[in-house]
Amino acid sequence: MTCIKTLRKRRLMTAEQLALKSGVARVSITRYENGKREPRVGEALKIARALGCTVEQLMDDEEGAGEDGI
Prior knowledge:
Low-confidence stretches: none
Helix content: 40-55%
CATH topology: 434 Repressor (Amino-terminal Domain)
Number of domains: 1
Shape: globular
Radius of gyration: 10 Å
Mean pLDDT: 88
């Protein structure tokens, strides 16, 4: 499970803003956040870069998302 939504909200971004910044479709972002799909490696990397975190942090569980100062 990813913590995209948690990281996105901490950065005060909408799903649409994240989609534009990452180049990943908004509908895909929503599916990842709702746990309906897991991002492929390339998409996870784009999202992580847009959020200013690592792929490992992105793929961490919701509770662990804040441990590294994110």
